[in-house]
Design goal:
Blueprint lengths: L15 E3 L6 E3 L3 E3 L6 E3 H9 L7 H14 L1 H4 L4 E2 L6 E2 L5 E2 L1 E5 L2 E12 L1 H18 L5 E9 L1 H7 L5 E5 L13
Parallel strand pairs: 9-10, 10-11
Antiparallel strand pairs: 1-2, 3-4, 5-8, 6-7, 8-9
Amino acid sequence: MACAVPGGCKNKKARTSQCWECGDRFCAEHAQKCDRCGNHVCQKDWERHERRSGRCMSTFRLERDLQTLVRANLPQLKRGLKTHDGNRERVLKDGRRIDIETIGAKGSVVIELKAGQAGLTALKQIRDYMKTVEQEDGRGPVQGILVAKSFAPQAIIEAKKVPKIELRQYTFTFAFDRPEQA
């Protein structure tokens, strides 16, 4: 695949690697390997990746995995949701990224994911995303769903004051079976 650097890459036949942050593919000239996590990151996302200050290996990977699982199981989260973002994080005009954007029965639904506990900061974050999507798209009210492993008590109290935001706690269930006999 060709390098996705804006304006095109002069090295048309270079081998590319997928950027850990944005998912696009870049050649070695336009991406570098993180010494902490070993993943390739494009130049435009390098600063953000560096700000993770060592958390790139654990928290972000779990959120990326959580995003994959939620996308595959949207009907379990809320009936009628359909992805609206091409199965990629939506990048807002100011550079912030929405984990998942969907369309539901009442319009746009922004989904924010937290691998661990979500607090007031996560609640503010999803409210800001909802407001920005309303302004950028002009399609009317936007709903929000905040998905996390757990919620700080204050976040639960504050979320009840915002009727357009739903909180969803995720759990995992594993089942182990013996392989079928051939």
